[in-house]
Write a structure and sequence with these properties.
5-stranded mixed beta sheet; DNA Primase, Chain A; alpha+beta; globular; DNA primase DNAg catalytic core, N-terminal domain; 16 strands
């Protein structure tokens, strides 16, 4: 996987990190794993599922999901989970396991090879240090420090979350980063500066604001939030979307809350930076905040690996109610239990816990209603139980109910609502079915609109589907590759018999050749093979064929090899005949003659090789 900065990380260091890193330990930070035999199982973090199909092998140091076919080693897990490049995953694990990486002197050409993402992480880190230094290290940040302390935040929490201050100047950060020889265009790409209207330079995005650095689950700085200290508007200002910052995939403070979330099995979701910080400071450490956006499936997907229950803490207003309604289907589809707390009027989480303390907060949260019960109760209070009120309640709840894709919980909620309202269950069900049809049409319209702006990739999709179909037909080739990975005693015989010459699937052929060139040797050797493969599809196949435990012996292995060879003439003939038919349709006579000659040669050659193999065995 010699890409991006991999060339600048010595192979022996990569090997040292791989030996030090424990894939079960790393994956456990994202997925609740349970030991089953020799392996560990859990819910896949890469797709929605309720029955665990995600497997981690501590012996082979690999993972594989039997549901979505994703697989790899500890590096590729982090690349997939946190969107890291290979060098980024190496650096992350090096920091985690206390392994020093050399910092080579880079030439101008080498600097150009550094990935854009790596540069953006570095720029954001430097910006975070700048803002934090301005808050705690000089008179410029005095006003901001007084403001934070007045709101009850300690120096410990300020340092823990790297809070900062953006000076009241147009180009303070810009000049600081330019002094570090960072190109202005890259600072703009990080979302830290804005181009002037006359195109003559840039100015700082954040000015005279409290700064909240936003870190991802790998503790890399990806963006910032800024808050004014008076009544100016906008009150909050956030980084724009960048190659490393996507607010749909991030929750503020979750990186710091993760361990407590896992310990408690739950997470408190709030809506603001100060809300999360106030809860954390007062001991409610399993709290995270949305970043100026509604909860998304990606957020829930991110949390579900280490929580079974989410408690939404919303202000007592219409916006909080709407947020609860939107989240129902997403939580249910991910199998995460969700409850809702509406705070007393005039309070947000920050003011409530500051005034009443953590015990009162826990008591309030302990009485949180399950989300659909909460919505039903709230709707009843709002509309009453008159005939018109019941109709209004049904109207309010039809979309939340329709958003639940799983039929069983949806049916239970429909039954509960019909009993509470005294309406026939079939009437509620009919209303929900109508809404499901409406939502489906809306989804189709959105999909068609998206297609108009999506570059055509039809040929790529067709090619991929054909490759998958071809692979499904090549079960013998898959068995042989699995044999090579799990029963290396056969490698010499496979190489001598030129078994790979009979492969028709190019991906399996590539993997087979890689195994012969780099025999696994030990079970951990399979993880080493994966580090040599850049292509995610090939890593997935490697993981899939490695993780299935099979009982191998030489007699059965030779049977599989003989079967492949005996089937090869027919398979080659079918392939060539299809190519000949295509060439004839295109009226390409030269190609037809060439393919006919190849067909005749292959038929003779395969018969000869088959006879040779049969004589040997």
């Amino acid at each position: 996987m010699g890409v991006l900065l991999a060339n600048f990380i010595p192979e022996d260091k990569i090997e040292e990190i791989k030996n030090a890193a424990d894939i079960v330990e790393v994956v456990s930070e994202y997925v609740l794993l349970k030991k089953t035999g020799r392996n560990y199982n859990g819910l896949c973090p890469f797709h929605s599922e309720k029955t665990p199909s995600f497997t981690v092998s501590p012996e082979k140091q690999i993972f594989h999901c039997f549901g979505c076919s994703t697989g790899g080693n500890v590096f590729s897990f982090l690349m997939k989970q946190d969107g890291l490049s290979f060098p980024e995953s190496v650096r992350f694990l090096a920091r985690r396991y206390g392994i020093d990486l050399p910092r080579p002197e880079m030439t101008g050409k080498m600097r150009q090879q550094v990935s854009e993402r790596e540069q953006l992480y570095k720029i954001n880190r430097d910006a975070m240090d700048f803002f934090h230094g301005k808050l705690v290290g000089g008179s410029q940040g005095d006003k901001a420090m007084v403001y934070l302390k007045r709101r009850g935040f300690s120096r410990e929490i300020i340092d823990r979350f790297y809070l900062g201050y953006a000076p009241d100047a147009w180009d303070a950060l810009l000049n600081y980063l330019k002094h570090k020889r960072v190109p202005a265009e890259m600072i703009e790409k990080a979302g830290l500066v804005i181009a002037r209207k006359d195109k003559n330079g840039f100015y700082d995005r954040f000015r005279n604001r409290i700064i909240f650095p936003i870190l991802n689950m790998s503790r890399q700085t990806v963006g910032f939030g800024g808050r004014v200290m008076d009544d100016s508007l906008p009150k909050y200002l956030n980084s724009p979307e960048t190659p490393v910052y996507n607010k749909r995939r991030l929750l503020y403070g979750l990186y710091a809350a993760r361990n407590k979330c896992r310990e408690e099995g739950s997470v408190y979701i709030v809506e603001g930076y100060f809300d999360q910080l106030a809860l954390y400071q007062r001991g409610v450490e399993n709290a995270a905040a949305t970043l100026g956006t509604a909860l998304t499936p990606e957020h829930i997907h991110l949390m579900k690996g280490f929580v079974k229950r989410a408690v939404l803490i919303f202000d007592s207003d219409e916006a909080g109610l709407k947020a609860s309604e939107r989240s129902v289907g997403m939580f249910v589809s991910e199998g995460v239990e969700v409850h809702v707390v509406m705070l007393p009027k005039g309070h947000d989480p920050d003011s409530y816990i500051s005034e009443f303390g953590p015990e009162a907060f826990y008591k309030l949260a302990g009485n949180a209603l399950e989300v659909m019960s909460f919505l039903m109760t709230t709707a009843e209070k709002k509309h009453g139980l008159s005939v018109n009120g019941k109709l209004a309640i049904l109207e309010d709840l039809r979309r939340p109910l329709a958003s639940i894709e799983d039929v069983n919980p949806r049916q239970l909620y429909i039954k509960e609502l019909s009993e509470r309202l005294g309406i026939d269950e079939s009437a509620v069900l009919e209303k929900v079915r109508e809404t499901i049809a409406v939502l489906k049409r809306e989804h189709e319209i959105q999909a068609r609109r998206a297609e108009r702006f999506t570059p055509p990739a039809e040929s790529m999709t067709i090619h991929k589907k054909r490759a998958q179909k071809s692979r499904a037909e090549n079960r013998l080739e898959q068995q042989i590759v699995a044999m090579m990975l799990q029963y290396p005693e056969m490698l010499l015989e496979i190489e001598k018999s030129n078994v790979l010459d009979y492969f028709m699937d190019n991906t399996l052929l590539f993997i087979g050749k890689l195994i012969l060139e780099h025999p696994p040797g030990t079970e951990k050797g399979i993880s080493n093979l994966m580090s040599m493969v850049d292509d995610a599809e090939k890593r997935n196949i490697l993981a899939s064929l490695s993780i299935k435990e099979e009982m191998w012996n030489q007699r059965d292995c030779r049977k599989i090899i003989s079967k492949l060879i005996s089937h090869s003439p027919k398979r080659h003939e079918i392939s060539l005949k299809a190519q000949i038919s295509a060439a004839e349709r295109e009226n390409n006579q030269d190609l037809v003659l060439k393919l006919l000659g190849e067909l005749q040669k292959i038929t003779v050659l395969n018969r000869k090789q088959m006879n040779d193999v049969l004589k040997e065995h």
